[in-house]
Amino acid sequence: MKFPNRPRWVPKRKPKTVFVFSGGAVRGAAQIGMLKALCEAGIKPDAVVGVSIGALNGFWFSCNPTLERVNELERLWQDIVEDPPISGNVLRRITSILRGKPSFDTGEKLRLFLEENVPSGDLGETEIPFHLGTTSASTGLIKWWDEGPSVDLLLASAALPGLLPAVHLDDSGYHLDGGIVSNIPLRKAISLKPTRLVVLDVATRFLPPEKQTAISLMMIGFRAASAELSRQEWADVPRNVKVIHIGLGDTDGDLDIDFQNVPDLMKEGEKVAQKVLSESLTDAAN
């Protein structure tokens, strides 16, 4: 059967850029440097997806996706170097384990920090669409949110098992770090039908044997599973979607819970992003 009126062309999709913010604990400071380089290069998102520390950075940026907001984020990160919202005391961690507590930290200080600084009280009140992932403690499945109380949702998405307590979210039960299931949330980003992904990847890498510590060894199982899930998500990215992958290397092998590394991480993130963007422009010209 012939269709004489059938068009011989297929309209092109409207360009759509989605920023993907990975988890990575304190390494998330590098995303501020990455954002600075992206803003200066004139690359802006139409939507943002984030988990864990990436959810915090991504939410702040989604409320006002400008260089001015990035500079505000940089100042916030600099402030917490001297007064971290999460305890970094080793003795306190050991004591928590011995006393049988569900987490090293109560999360109360981080909640106070968010309540005092969060740019909007609801996830749905952003300038551009923002999507945050949490992991259900009862099912192990990831749940995506684009509206709801921002402080509770940001706390839940950052609740790394053992480090911070699970957060109860209305009728959805207790929720944990979204990075448990999707630390580089590419599948969610792809579901938004982008033509371009910009991946701000600060996911923690494995330390060499000589740099392993008791804490890092405890995390190996979690990180191994997370790395495998991330490999599967990368494999699912369609070939017709342009990808700008800004990945943070291991600068010094320290644990990713040391806030003293924040200044260096921000500088390294900007440096890496500038290099990736320069190479991307060169490839486009050739």
Structural descriptors:
286 residues; 8-stranded mixed sheet; 10 helices; 14% strand
Quickly give the structural class: alpha/beta
One letter per element, helices H and strands E, the order comes to EHEHHHHEEHEEHEHHEH
- Helix count from the secondary structure assignment: 10
Mean pLDDT: 84
Q: What is the terminal-to-terminal distance?
A: 44 Å
User: Using DSSP, what is the number of strands?
Assistant: 8
Report the helical percentage. 40-55%
Radius of gyration: 19 Å
The shape, in one word, is globular
Residue stretches low in confidence (pLDDT < 50, at least 5 long) are 94-100
Biggest sheet character: 8 strands, mixed
**Strand percent estimate:** 5-15%
Please give the structural blueprint.
Blueprint: E1 17-21, H1 30-40, E2 47-51, H2 53-63, H3 67-82, H4 90-98, H5 108-117, E3 130-136, E4 142-145, H6 150-157, E5 167-168, E6 174-177, H7 186-191, E7 196-201, H8 214-218, H9 220-235, E8 242-247, H10 262-285
Parallel strand pairs: 1-2, 1-7, 2-3, 7-8
Antiparallel strand pairs: 3-4, 3-6, 5-6
Helix pairs in contact: 1-3, 1-10, 5-6
Short description:
The chain has 286 residues and is α/β, with parallel strands linked by helices.
Description:
This protein has 286 residues and is an alpha/beta fold. The protein has ten helices and eight strands.
